[in-house]
Amino acid sequence: MSTVKTFLLPDLGEGLADAELLTWSVDVGDTITLNQTIAEVETAKASVELPSPYAGVVVARHAEEGTTIDVGAPFLDIEVAGPATADPTGPASTDTADEAAADARPEPAVETVETEKAEAAPTRTPVLVGYGVAEETSSRRPLAAPPVRKEARERGIDLATVAPTGPHGNVTRDDLAVSSAPHADEERTPIKGVRKHTAEAMVRSAFTAPHVTEFVTVDVTPMMELLDELKASPLLAGVRVTPLALVAKALLIAVREHPSLNSSWDEAANEIVTKKYVNLGIAAATPRGLMVPNIKNAQTLGFRDLCSSLSALTAVAKEGKTGPAELADGTITITNIGVFGIDSGTPILTPGEAAILCFGAVRRQPWEYRGEIALRHVTTLSLSFDHRLVDGEQGSKFLSTVATLLSDPVGFAALG
């Protein structure tokens, strides 16, 4: 005897309400095994591969690629043999289908994961990590089939503004036709995924932490000369040595002397938390938007390992494959705007961090050197910091230490 189980989109443990389906890895009729990857979804933080909680045959897929699915909504129907149970090590499934039923296409032969438990227990609203139970009066997501949602997204139509005429209170294609569409000379891009998360985080940071930004312009000719020597060193053969790596090394040295720049504000405990480790964040422009993956315990790395870690981090980020673990628990960040030919900026803090160092373009320009005007390699560094955690003197001394190391990198003598 076989039973059709409905796998609900699980809470991915990030306190997020929905995810976008990027790609299906299985099709209707496929025979799949336990924990086989069935799809790749994108949350506001990272892309995640979903494993199947069952072995069996795929009966139905409840979403199309490119659509957004609510946590707890039906995702995949799998026909299993016998009284199969979900893999306890697999992704968690909600034990109620109240929210999911709105967008589902119920069929008599299909039962939801843990149906027996849901029927025996009082009905409740699914609770996401980091959130309480939603108010009963809160507005629900407008009902619409995936193709209708896709069309609305492409046309820039907010489904919440469309009057539904469908038999179950759902928005139809005809409803979209009579709704307000964007002007012909406008292009609209949905705000979702990483871009939505970044926007929310930056607003939260800007209006929570009192930002101060300081600038220093410095002659980094010695740094560039050292860079050429390091590239030719046999000890660093096979690794990519960049100016950013030297800036990162200077930052790590400066943090040892000025630990307040590597701290956070604990509002609940009314404490300042100074970190003894440095999870070095590197702001990266990726196909999915701005991301800040970090190198864990960067203070323990020699220069060769630091270069390798930077290269690996950048490569993964550019492919859009950075995972949640690499994005979590950063302590201080570098943003390299010099790669875009920009001289300086006033970066916004990564939420929860005390400081962010901005590295501008390195340019050859006239500079006073030993009493004469000469062409030198010059760059501008800017430092934004949380004035609750870092006062002006501490921020200035930190920035001065970084600038001094880059202009006279005698402290880098033992790099290897």
Which secondary structure elements does this structure contain, and how are they paired or packed?
Blueprint: E1 2-8, E2 18-24, E3 31-32, E4 37-42, E5 47-51, E6 56-61, E7 68-70, E8 74-81, E9 110-112, H1 115-120, H2 146-155, H3 173-177, H4 193-208, E10 211-219, H5 221-232, H6 243-257, E11 263-266, E12 271-274, E13 280-282, E14 284-286, E15 289-291, E16 294-295, H7 303-318, H8 324-327, E17 332-336, E18 355-359, E19 363-369, E20 372-386, H9 392-407
Parallel strand pairs: 1-9, 13-17, 17-18
Antiparallel strand pairs: 1-8, 2-4, 2-7, 3-6, 4-5, 6-8, 10-20, 11-12, 13-16, 14-15, 18-20, 19-20
Helix pairs in contact: 6-9
Can you give a write-up of this model?
Residues 81-95 have a biased composition (Low complexity). Residues 4-79 form the Lipoyl-binding domain. Residues 81-125 are annotated as: Disordered. GO terms for molecular function: dihydrolipoyllysine-residue acetyltransferase activity. With 416 residues, the protein is an alpha+beta fold. The protein has three domains: 2-120, OB fold (Dihydrolipoamide Acetyltransferase, E2P) (Beta Barrel), CATH 2.40.50.100; 146-190, Dihydrolipoamide Transferase (Irregular); 194-412, 2-Layer Sandwich (Chloramphenicol Acetyltransferase). The protein is 24% helix and 26% strand. It has helices at 115-120, 146-155, 173-177, 193-208, 221-232, 243-257, 303-318, 324-327, 392-407, and strands at 2-8, 18-24, 31-32, 37-42, 47-51, 56-61, 68-70, 74-81, 110-112, 211-219, 263-266, 271-274, 280-282, 284-286, 289-291, 294-295, 332-336, 355-359, 363-369, 372-386. The strands form five sheets. Strands 10, 13, 16, 17, 18, 19 and 20 form a seven-stranded mixed beta sheet that branches. The protein has a five-stranded mixed beta sheet with strand order 3-6-8-1-9, with no helix packed on it. A hairpin with a 2-residue loop joins strand 14 (284-286) and strand 15. Helix 6 (243-257) packs across helix 9 (392-407). Mean pLDDT is 82; it is low at 84-139.
